[in-house]
């Protein structure tokens, strides 16, 4: 039995990046052998095991044979006679098909190290086209390593375009598409991810409306926004995704939410930010418009929602909104108004709400005409 470190851990170590997780491939073993050594099996059809101490993933070397459509239609063979090279050839990119033996030596049958040095993302074999999920994975890798100068090999880009034209993206579930988006947002490279998808004709998998609006100007606008967010070390998925949707209408945002099943908090912040950006970014907003904004955001019970919208708009402008201090102070003082003070004055029933709203509006008028 031989154990090799594989995939992203080897790739990122060679690039000098921090290694966040390690995956291993085991050659010449059976499931029973690993179970007897204390490994915990986490899948019957997919031979992955957790190490008894480190809990890192160890997968038996395997081959895959396509059967059916989509990215799940594969039959695995993980008998002990599967070689390391047979396992590596089923991987997506040459830079992900490098293995490291326990003595530190590298096994690189597909010249992944050379492609790392040349900053090229190249598919390993024709089997690449059997898995439509790889379209999004390559876009994500190209985005993540864009700052290092990585590009997609011409033959790989041509293959991606052909896969998109063959409507392979249509076989992916909405949840899987969002997961790849979420990973790219976490990488801090979502703008590049979208641009790569547009370059291969695949941006419609996220939003046909966004695809129709995509242009160099929007791309550079989003580049500046994400650079500012990275500078502030903003990592909140909803805050980052809202940078993209500010250019869309509410109906278009709702269409994206339906199309790729956005989590509720991501969808809601995108909608709130789009709806209230004009009022909250104005040099001279009216007190009535600000009060309506506070009510619609339910500032009184959900102040964090208001704070998030202000942060979305700050990132979009690369500076706090024009009347930031006034907006914050007005919100703080208006929230501090207590209905008990009106009850103590003998005000009853529906008149309490009227008095409360009037008091809050008067405070806001002190800041905005």
UniProtKB/TrEMBL annotation:
Keyword Transmembrane: no
Pfam families: PolyA_pol (PF01743), PolyA_pol_RNAbd (PF12627)
Record-annotated tRNA nucleotidyltransferase/poly(A) polymerase RNA and SrmB- binding domain positions: 149-211
Annotated Gene3D superfamilies: Beta Polymerase, domain 2, cca-adding enzyme, domain 2
Keyword tRNA processing carried by entry: yes
Record key words, sorted: ATP-binding, Magnesium, Metal-binding, Nucleotide-binding, Nucleotidyltransferase, RNA repair, RNA-binding, Transferase, tRNA processing
Poly A polymerase head domain location: 3-122
InterPro entries according to UniProt: CCA_bact, NT_sf, PolA_pol_head_dom, PolyA_RNA-bd, tRNA_CCA-adding_enzyme
Cofactor: Mg(2+)
PANTHER family the UniProt entry points to: MULTIFUNCTIONAL CCA PROTEIN
Identification of the protein by name: tRNA nucleotidyltransferase
Organism name: Pseudoalteromonas shioyasakiensis
């Amino acid at each position: 039995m031989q154990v090799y470190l594989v995939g992203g851990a080897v790739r990122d170590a060679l690039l000098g990046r921090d290694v966040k997780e390690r995956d291993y491939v085991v050659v010449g073993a059976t499931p029973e052998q690993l179970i007897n050594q204390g490994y915990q099996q986490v899948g019957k059809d997919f031979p992955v095991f957790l190490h008894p101490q480190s809990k890192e993933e160890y997968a038996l070397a395997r081959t895959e044979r396509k059967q059916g459509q989509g990215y799940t239609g594969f039959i695995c063979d993980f008998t002990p006679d599967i070689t390391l090279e047979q396992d590596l050839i089923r991987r997506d990119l040459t830079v992900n098909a490098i293995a490291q033996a326990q003595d530190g030596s590298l096994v690189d049958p597909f010249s992944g190290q050379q492609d790392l040095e040349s900053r090229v993302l190249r598919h390993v074999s024709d089997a690449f086209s059997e898995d439509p999920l790889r379209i999004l994975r390559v876009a994500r890798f190209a985005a993540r390593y864009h700052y290092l100068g990585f590009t997609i090999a011409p033959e790989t880009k041509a293959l991606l375009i052909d896969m998109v034209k063959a409507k392979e993206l249509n076989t992916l579930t909405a949840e899987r598409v969002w997961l790849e988006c979420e990973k790219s947002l976490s990488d801090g490279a979502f703008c590049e991810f979208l641009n790569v998808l547009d370059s291969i004709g695949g941006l419609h998998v996220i939003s046909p409306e966004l695809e129709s609006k995509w242009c160099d100007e929007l791309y550079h606008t989003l580049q500046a926004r994400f650079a500012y967010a990275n500078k502030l070390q903003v990592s909140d998925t909803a805050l980052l995704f809202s940078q993209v949707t500010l250019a869309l209408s509410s109906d278009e945002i709702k269409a994206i939410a339906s199309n790729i099943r956005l989590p509720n908090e991501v969808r809601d912040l995108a909608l709130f930010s789009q709806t209230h950006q004009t009022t909250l970014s104005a040099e001279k907003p009216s007190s009535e418009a600000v009060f309506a904004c506070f009510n619609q955001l339910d500032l009184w019970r959900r102040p964090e929602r208001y704070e998030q919208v202000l942060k979305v708009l700050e990132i979009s402008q690369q500076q706090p909104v024009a009347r930031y201090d006034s907006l914050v102070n007005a919100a703080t003082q208006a929230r501090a108004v207590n209905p008990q003070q009106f009850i103590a004055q003998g005000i009853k029933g529906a008149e309490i709400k009227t008095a409360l709203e009037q008091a809050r509006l008067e405070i806001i008028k002190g800041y905005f005409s």
